[in-house]
Amino acid sequence: MNSADQSHNFATAGLPAETVGDVHVDHPRMTARNVDVFYGDKQAIDNVTLDIGEKQVISFIGPSGCGKSTFLRCLNRMNDTIDICRITGEIALDGQNIYDPKIDVVPLRARVGMVFQKPNPFPKSIFDNVAYGPRIHGIATSKDELNDIVESSLERAGLWNEVKDRLHQPGTGLSGGQQQRLCIARAIAVSPEVILMDEPCSALDPIATAKIEELIAELSSEYTIVIVTHSMQQAARVSQRTAYFHLGKLVEVGNTDQIFTNPQHEMTNNYITGRFG
Amino acid sequence: MSDVTKGRISPDVAASRVAAGLAARRSKEKRFQLYGKIAIGIALAFLVTLFVSIFSKGIPGFFQHYVTLEVTLDRAKLDPAGDLSVQSLYDGDARGVIRKALYEATGASGRSGRKAAGKIISGGAEQRLREAVLNDPSILDTTQSMTFAVDDDVDSFLRGFIKRETPEKDRRINDRMIGYIDTLTEQGLISFQFSDYLIFGSASRNAEMAGIFGALIGSILTLAVCLVLSFPMGVATAVYLEEFAPKNRVTELIEININNLAAVPSVVFGILGLAIFIGIFGMPRSIPLIGGVVLALMTLPTIIISSRAAIRAVPPSIRDAALGVGASRMQTMLHHVVPLAMPGMLTGTIIGMAQALGETAPLLMIGMVAFIVDVPGSVTDPGTVLPVQIFMWADFAERMFVLKTSAAIMVLLAFLILMNAAAIIIRKKLERRW
Ligand SMILES: Nc1ncnc2c1ncn2[C@@H]1O[C@H](COP(=O)(O)OP(=O)(O)OP(=O)(O)O)[C@@H](O)[C@H]1O
Ligand SMILES: [Mg+2]
Question: I need a labelling partner for B113 at 20 to 30 A (CA). Which of A43, B209, B288, B331 fits?
């Protein structure tokens, strides 16, 4: 980890022993308790406790390498694919521990969907991209229903009008922003409860970004959304709560307004005022 | 802050230093290109030499001399039982009928004259005649003009390999025969045609009748067995090792062994096949089934290694995408990774197959070198394969065998090129961008 230059940057500030702000919410959809994550011997997440509120957008911010993606990927067990990754503590979805050995990751990932930093449509048609999830989970009971699911997913992802005439052309032939919206459509096609987004706009231009942000705002009435972002403005625009990570610790969490106007911890303050990060 | 200037070089100085090195850099580049061109030139020269030598010998091998005779197809002689059965035709005197036509055409008379004339025509002529009658019995009791291959010595004479000037006792064709051949030539009865024996004939001691058909079928059957065994097994192994196998001592050992297996001389696989399938299981020798199994063992490492490389080349983002919507690992593999890796896997398989097609040594070990006249009808019929056939022919001294060997090599090469071209086309066609 590039901890050396980072600690150099803010020698004045120290990591807090406990997270500043209220990690709990009234109606949590997901709860993380004392989560530690290790890659081999290296600790990437250190004792993080956090609630993710139902039908809320929460954004994770923090300097590069602080563990935002790592923590996000714990929420739908995508870290299982990394051999050296080890997780302790408890993460629950609707009160049920998702790391329980009895839990099957397949339905879990259907309930907690994910959108990645780089748009990654399958090299298949636009239709098949969106239909893939419903197909493998057997969500649609008929062909018509599947068509409807695809249409409404693309509609909600704000892509329908652009692609309705070329549903059977490859998804990889779309522009970057369209591809990302296709990936969002693919994620919502399986009707997840929670959507995890890891820097979904980092590869997009401002117009595509604005579209996705609009989309997030719309989706937040139905879904619980966790978004990782490097853009403070984006966090401020789309999220109700914001969590600030640093060196694997959750430094501060609170309502987005409060975090950006009146941060409690000095490190948070330094970060959002652009003094480092 | 004082040592900030230490490593700094002013742009002017830097530019002048770059310029100083530029000439050397360019000439180095030029020299390197030259080496490359020389290497390619040498390789091409070898290739051209190879092709010229094979083609110059091989193309004449596709042709041979035939003689056309007016044959009176006397039913009483050809079909003594009168029922057109194979047995009856074999009992009949096809040879006598052909000889008669031959004596008439050459004007041969007397015991020694007839003996000499009889040697002009191939021993396979009778079979030709019987087949013609079987195909179309209505030609019986008519006079037909029929074409038969000439004996291979006569063919060599006609090609000029046996010289007229050579003293009679030193050549395989006596003066009488030469006289008859001249008579036939003058009448325009001798022709130089595409050799149907080469393509549709099987192993034969008579050079003029020898062909590659049996070996070709043997090769196809052997390769089919090899493909059916090695492709699914290789792909399954690759998928398991890449995606599911735990990384521990055992799988590491397996991996090392697979890589080593690729370097084992092929004859060793033949010994293995001999010891296990023929020795222990007591299966018959010379059959394409065992040949295919042995070749499959040999091709497996190639397929596994190339399939693993192909799987590894599939971008992890595709895996993430599939897992992210809740596909199981199995579904991720079958729906996304394997289809995307398929072009690479197929390329590896075809190249493995091409290797197997050209393989001789392991098949010699399991006895696919036997002299088998019948064309194998199934994988359990004894047979041989193209490269082994070539190997056997190369042993014969007859001029015609030399020519046919080269022709057979050309056929083998054509198949190899075809397979490699198929590999390239598949790769180009199926390759997808993501
Ligand atoms: N697969 C891995 N193996 C080993 N270490 C890893 C792996 N993935 C991440 N890490 C380490 O874990 C730490 C946290 O990484 P993570 O990707 O979560 O950071 P991040 O906050 O998402 O950074 P960024 O903003 O740059 O995406 C980093 O130090 C990183 O080097
Ligand atoms: Mg990240």
Answer: B209
